[in-house]
Write a structure and sequence with these properties.
single chain, mainly alpha, 2 helices
Amino acid sequence: MTYNFDPERWYDNERAAIDRRRRQLSEQEYLRQLADLDRRYEDMLDRLDGTYRLPGG
């Protein structure tokens, strides 16, 4: 199965959602959510990296 998932677009959409809520958040909460998003993005990239490698290679 193939799909066209774009991690950068996902990140941009998530970041835009956080930015839209910024007025409702304290500065500390805003920064916490950005750090959490960055962590989730890096974790996702790590999982996606090597998806197409053959076992034992």
